[in-house]
Amino acid sequence: MSIYRSTVWFVKGLKEYTKQGYLNASRSFRPNDLDVDVTGKSFMITGANSGIGKCTALAIAKKGGIVHMVCRDSIRGEDARKEITDTTGNQNVFLHLLDMSKPKDIAKFAADFETSGKNLDVLINNAGCMVIIRELTDDGLEKNFATNTLGAHVLTTSLLSVLNKAEKPRVILVTSGGMLVQKLDLKDLQFEKMYPFDGTMAYAQNKRQQVIMTEQYAKKYPNIHCSCMHPGWADTPAVRMSMPSFHAKMKDRLRTPEQGADTLLWLAISDAALQQPSGLFFQDRTSVSKHLPLAWSKSTKQEDEQLMASLDELSKQYSTLS
């Protein structure tokens, strides 16, 4: 079944996820959807110093938004912040240093953000990693899972009280079409049984988890519009570093970072996005299926709820502030 999923997914990707796929899809875009003034609205973007996150931060800053860049690296983060402020003239662009693989640090950051009295209208969980060799964090958590899944969950749930103060709050998770090759596996969340370890499949499993998280957030937090999206195959530093052979073979077909960020920006600022039901998975401004045909990748309601219970338990275990 995994061979079937991978084959169907790659054929689909060649048609839809490439630069040409974006150009084809964009013919049906409504250009006025992004004609939005977001002056005074506050956006938090994790992994905002490069690639899709940086493109989104730049676009929002151009439109007058307050941008909170959450980055791990101080030098690259500050360079990106300065570039955005110099390019846009918007001085309301702020850098926050945070490692999204460290739950306790995330919880403290969120608590400090709330105490500061700052507003937050939109949270964009964009930061991610694809560690090819199984690696543990200082907490003993597998690094892909800690960053992509648990980190996003801790940040989102820790900022709920701030988001609920906004008029029309939104939470967006940047996932990947790669999740289509995976079915939720509750028995090995941290890939202890995966042998040999496959970082690409671990990443895809995390992205499947994020899609389910989005669905569950939509049910549990009806006042917040929740969505997730696939940027397509974009030419970003993360792709070049984590998937060098894929990048080398596909580089002429890859989307620009701006094309990859288009749907993320649309979900973050457009009124049109809010007309869509909460909890959906988007590709090129359109909600699309979360499963390939005949792929047997759907999980049960009980399995989805168990994932969230496991994340809540791990959050409590690893992020409780002393």
Question: Features of this protein?
Answer:
single chain, SDR_fam, 322 residues, oxidoreductase activity, SDR_member_12, NAD(P)-bd_dom_sf, 11% strand, oxidoreductase, globular, alpha/beta, 13 helices, 8-stranded mixed beta sheet, Rossmann fold
The poorly predicted ranges are none
* Major sheet summary line: 8 strands, mixed
Mean pLDDT score, rounded? 95
State the end-to-end distance. Answer: 46 Å
β-strand amount: 5-15%
Q: For the largest beta sheet, what order do the strands appear in spatially?
A: 3-2-1-4-5-6-7-8
N-to-C order of helices and strands: HHEHEHEHEHHEHEHHHHEEH
Looking at CATH, the homologous superfamily is: NAD(P)-binding Rossmann-like Domain
According to CATH, what is the topology?
A: Rossmann fold
List the helices and strands and how they pair.
Blueprint (H helix, E strand, L loop, with lengths): L1 H15 L2 H8 L15 E5 L4 H12 L3 E6 L2 H15 L4 E5 L5 H13 L6 E4 L17 H16 L1 H4 L6 E5 L24 H22 L4 E6 L6 H6 L1 H7 L6 H13 L1 H4 L5 E4 L2 E2 L13 H19 L3
Parallel strand pairs: 1-2, 1-4, 2-3, 4-5, 5-6, 6-7
Antiparallel strand pairs: 7-8
Helix pairs in contact: 1-2, 3-4, 3-11, 5-6, 6-8, 6-13, 8-13
Report on this model:
It comes from Mytilus galloprovincialis. GO terms for molecular function: oxidoreductase activity. This is Dehydrogenase/reductase SDR family member 12. Helix 1 (about 1-15) crosses helix 2 (about 20-25) and helix 8 packs across helix 13. This protein has a single domain, classed as 3-Layer(aba) Sandwich (Rossmann fold). The protein has helices spanning about 1-15, 20-25, 50-60, 75-90, 105-115, 145-160, 160-165, 200-220, 235-240, 245-250, 255-270, 270-275, 300-320; strands at about 40-45, 65-70, 95, 120-125, 170-175, 225-230, 280-285, 285. The protein is α/β, with parallel strands linked by helices and about 325 residues long. Strands 3-2-1-4-5-6-7-8 form an 8-stranded mixed beta sheet, with helices on both faces. The chain is built from 13 helices and 8 strands. It is globular, with a radius of gyration of 18 Å. The longest helix is centred in the middle third of the chain and has 22 residues, at about 200-220. It is about 50% helix and about 10% strand. It starts with a helix and ends with a helix.
